[in-house]
Each structure stands twice: as C-alpha cells, then as structure tokens.
Amino acid sequence: MLILIVVPAYNEEKMVGEVVKGLNEFNYEVVVVDDGSKDNTSQIAKNAGAVVLRHFINRGQGAALQTGFDYAKKVGADIVVTFDADGQNKPEEVAKIIEPLLIGQIDVALGSRFMERKSNVPLIKKIVLRGGILFERLFVGVKLSDAHNGFRAFSKKAINLIELNQDKMAHATEVIQEIKKHKLKFQEVPVTMRYTEYSKQKGQSVFNSIKIVSDLFLSKVISKK
Amino acid sequence: MIIKVLVVFFVIFAIWRTLLKLKKQELRIGEAIVWVVFWLAVAVVAITPQTTDIIAQFVGVSRGIDLLVYVSIIVLFFLIFKLIVKLEKIERSISKITRHIALKESDEGKEEKE
C-alpha cells in the first residue's frame, strides 16, 4: 500500500526540510510541490529526501495540490495525505488521519482543529474560520467543524474523482464541493495545529477570505458556460 | 466644423480598410457589411447629431448623447465581465501548463537516475 504525502510549498526553505524529515521518520513517501519558490525550497526538500515537483511560476496552493494529485495518480498511490509545509501539522498525526481510510469506511478524512480543544487557535483566526464554516454550511450545504484545514487524507477513488480548478486558497471550499458532487464519504478527524510565530506569519491573512469568496463566485459563472 | 470633417475622413479611411481586408479575405462578407454599416452610422451621427435624439426619444431618453453614454456604460461593464471570465480561464490554462511541465520534469529526473 502506497501512502503519499503531498506537501505544497512556497518559499518555505526554513521549515520544509524539517517537515520532510519528520515525515520520513514514519517511512512515508513524500512529494513536495514547490510552487515557484524564489528561495531554496526545492533543493532543501530534495536533500531531505522528498520527491520534488517544481512549478516554474507561482500558481497558488490549489494548483500545487492538484499537481500532487496528478503525481499520485501516476504513481498509483492508494492514499494521499495533504500536509502543510510550514510545520503546522504533526507528522505523528498522519497515522490518525489515514486510519478511517485504511479501514475502508470513508473516501476523505478532513482534519479539524476544533473537534478537540488542544490547538491554540489565535482569536482573529478563530473568528474568520467560524465565518468560513458558516459559509460552507450555507452555500455548499456541508456541516463541518473546521474549514480550510490543510491536513486531509484522500482515498484512491477520491483522488480520481476530485479535480481542483481553484488555483488559489479557495481550493479548500472546492474540495468540500467536490466531495458533495461525487457523493464521497467523508469524516472529520481531530488534529492539533502548532501555531508558531513562523506559521502565523506565513499563514493566510484575514482579508484573503474576501478573495476566496469572490473566486468561488467567479468559478460558478465560468462553470455554467 | 473641423470635427465633422475629421470624422468623415476617418470613416472613409475605416471603410477603405474594411474593404481591403475583405479583399484579402481576412473578413467575411457578413462581417464587412456590419462594419461598413457601423462606420456609415458614425458618419451620419457626426454630420447630423440631431438624428440620435430621434432614437433616444423613441426609447425614452431625452438626448441622443445621454443614450450614447448609457449604452456605452452597459457595454463597458459587459466587456469587463467577459474579460474577467476570460482571464480566469487563461489563469487555469497557465496552471495546467505549469503542472504538465512539473510532472514531465520529474519523469526526466527519474530517467537520469536510472
């Protein structure tokens, strides 16, 4: 059984090496998608032992994930886990998130930082994420306890069905839309986030949520054509 | 008035270019007719601006120039909308190309190792 960890990375030379090494300790196959970084992300990831796919220009996290998915299809991965490059996710929790897939109950496992109250989510982040959760409940019709968590696991079936067109950050909502569209079985799995100064700095700004909503709206217009 | 003369000269020039393109078969006959009619209308409006008032009053706007502004704004909004959609499509195409190259390079890397 091939378990592939997809790590989208953009200018993450400080953390990506550590993240790859952390995952290697558990003997997972790691593919880093370097999304047009201007630093040494590619080289550091390669030296740490990951397969590196390189976008020669920056296309956004959604685009990088889809590249990882296409690679997974090519190598015939059985389970694909998406993992943040900034060290927010814990390598030891990969086992936890893939567990429901291994049993074969579900197609997609979504990490949730709100199911257990271990993560110290900054207040402003909490408010915006709550907004995202509400948005998904209203417009996608899926009830979740977390939105836009990068830690997720997909079965082979899910990878073959899901197609991400949202190149930027709206991909997180798109994943939920795709799950619903293809009637995939999903489950939320409690995960712990490490909010370091570094990850906070690298993370999404609050204002980006407006961009995400407008991207989703635009996509609706295009797909109708 | 100078403006009328200038417009008329420009219209003649535009129609001449249109017919030239038709001759070179860069334009189809239907398209050429539309363009010629459009340029003739521009000439008519330039020479006798009052004519636009008739159309304006027909649709319920008092002055021809007002109607022109309204219609222009609507057309501009529509074009901007089309542009945004088109841009998004191009963005997606660029992503596809980038992805294709990334995956292809990884293949080549493997072959070198072997």
Could you tell me the mean pLDDT of chain B? Answer: 89
User: Which two protein chains have the largest interface (Cβ within 8 Å of the partner's Cβ), and how many residues from each?
Assistant: A-B, 24 and 15 residues
* Biggest sheet overview of chain B: none
Largest sheet of chain A: 7 strands, mixed
CATH architecture of chain A: Alpha-Beta Complex
Provide the residue-averaged pLDDT of chain A.
88
Overall, the morphology of chain B is elongated
**What is the CATH superfamily of chain A?**
Spore Coat Polysaccharide Biosynthesis Protein SpsA, Chain A
Beta-strand fraction estimate of chain A: 15-25%
Number of helices of chain B: 4
Tell me roughly what share of residues is in helical segments of chain B: over 70%
* Beta strands of chain A, count: 7
Any low-confidence stretches of chain B, pLDDT <50, length ≥5? none
What does this structure look like?
- Chain A is globular.
- Chain A contains 9 helices and 7 strands, in the order E-H-E-H-E-H-E-H-E-H-E-H-H-E-H-H.
- In chain A, strand 1 (3-9), helix 1 and strand 2 form a beta-alpha-beta unit.
- A 7-stranded mixed beta sheet of chain A has the order 3-2-1-4-6-5-7, sandwiched between helices.
- Helix content of chain A is 44%, strand content 16%.
- In chain A, 48% of the residues are buried.
- By secondary structure, chain B is an all-alpha fold.
- Chain B has 2 domains: 1-48; 63-114.
- In chain B, helix 1 runs antiparallel to helix 2 (29-47).
Give a brief description.
Chain A is an alpha/beta fold. In chain A, 44% of the residues lie in helices and 16% in strands.
Descriptive keywords:
heterodimer; A: 225 residues; alpha/beta; Spore Coat Polysaccharide Biosynthesis Protein SpsA, Chain A; seven-stranded mixed sheet; B: mainly alpha; 2 domains; 4 helices
